[in-house]
Design goal:
- The chain is an alpha+beta fold and about 325 residues long.
- The protein has three domains: about 90 residues, 2-Layer Sandwich (Uridine Diphospho-n-acetylenolpyruvylglucosamine Reductase, domain 2), CATH 3.30.43; about 110 residues, Uridine Diphospho-n-acetylenolpyruvylglucosamine Reductase, domain 3; about 80 residues, Uridine Diphospho-n-acetylenolpyruvylglucosamine Reductase, domain 1 (Alpha-Beta Complex), CATH 3.90.78.
- Helix 3 packs antiparallel against helix 5.
- The relative contact order is 0.13.
Length: about 325
């Protein structure tokens, strides 16, 4: 018996299986294969995603989720400001949610699609005289990602005003979840496995628009003065340990300005890693590991990454 024949038949079956769902999904938006993730992350690193889909609207996203086989891993993408994809790429489906960018205002209650930039969200709220999300003016991400990690700074965070979200489950079903059920703690929200946030609703409070904008300008000025915003970065690399600051610990370990390959711990802010132009994901992970080892050796504190490492890392 020729053992090659059954293997060939299995290969053909798998190929037909793949082609069937790819053909189904392609009708719901822009679908590309082998899309470099370095084009979609603020660190400008990352290898190719096997498939990349930008659904044209919420209904298309729900239909696409229902069509994708359960053994295909799904990765939601906003602006790519808090993720690190391996140089070898991501063997699954990346779903770009940028087309989910609708707004609605009802008094002090505001709803926004997952693809709305947080900077735009804060400006729209200021124009409506609504306060409580000024910090979003300084966060380089989208509402969906901000919810998923409970983003925050300047003593504010998403959970302060979030009331509910809508997610699309892996089955394609739309589900509403109260904020109280998300276990919103520092830089974390508990979401259903392999679900995607598609919208979020916030309850804000009225204030003078000019005063809101002034607070936003002050926050942006402080960030520009202390953080390397002119270079590719992913924002804060490590979570702040309780009662301390990751930047202080990394600097105390003597690593401010330390460089591996094309990646460097910023000389301006030690909790930022910047891409000097030719960095690889491996360079950045090596810096993260080095900082963790050195800080733990010096202080006994194990820094936990805030940046999300996705895919498979060796």
């Amino acid at each position: 018996m020729n053992a090659v024949q059954p293997l060939n038949e299995i290969s053909q079956m798998l190929q037909q299986y793949t082609e069937a769902w790819v053909e189904a999904v392609s009708g719901f938006g822009v679908l590309r294969g082998d899309e470099l993730m370095s084009r979609h992350t603020t660190l400008a690193v990352g290898g190719p995603a096997r498939w990349f889909l930008r659904p044209k609207n919420r209904d298309a996203l729900m239909a696409a989720m229902a069509a994708v086989p359960s053994d295909v891993e799904i990765l939601p993408l906003g602006r790519g400001s808090n993720m690190l994809v391996p140089d070898g790429g991501f063997d699954g489906l990346v779903i770009d949610l940028s087309e989910l960018n609708d707004f609605s205002f009802n008094g002090c209650v505001v709803s926004a699609g997952a693809g709305v930039r947080m900077g735009r969200f804060s400006r729209q709220c200021a124009d409506h005289g609504l306060s409580g999300c000024e910090f979003m003016a300084t966060v380089p991400g989208d509402v969906g990602g901000g919810v998923a990690m409970n983003a925050g700074c300047f003593a504010q965070q998403v959970s302060d005003s979030l009331t509910s979200i809508e997610v699309v489950l892996r089955s394609g079903e739309l589900k509403e979840i109260d904020a109280a059920d998300l276990n919103l703690v520092y830089r974390h929200a508990t979401l259903p496995a392999q679900s995607l946030v598609v919208s979020a609703t916030f309850e804000l409070h009225p204030d003078n628009p000019d005063q809101i904008r002034e607070r936003m300008r002050t926050m942006r000025s402080r960030r520009s003065a202390t953080q390397p915003l002119s270079q590719p970065n992913c924002g804060s690399v490590f979570k702040n340990p309780e009662g301390d600051h990751a930047a202080r610990l990394v600097e105390a370990a003597g690593l401010k300005g330390f460089q591996i390959g094309g990646a460097r711990i910023s000389s301006q802010h030690a909790n930022f890693i910047v891409n000097e132009g030719e960095a690889s994901s491996a360079d950045i992970v090596a810096l993260i590991r080095r900082a963790q080892r050195q800080v733990e050796a010096d202080s006994g504190i194990k820094l936990e990454p805030e940046v999300r490492l996705v895919g498979e890392w060796l």
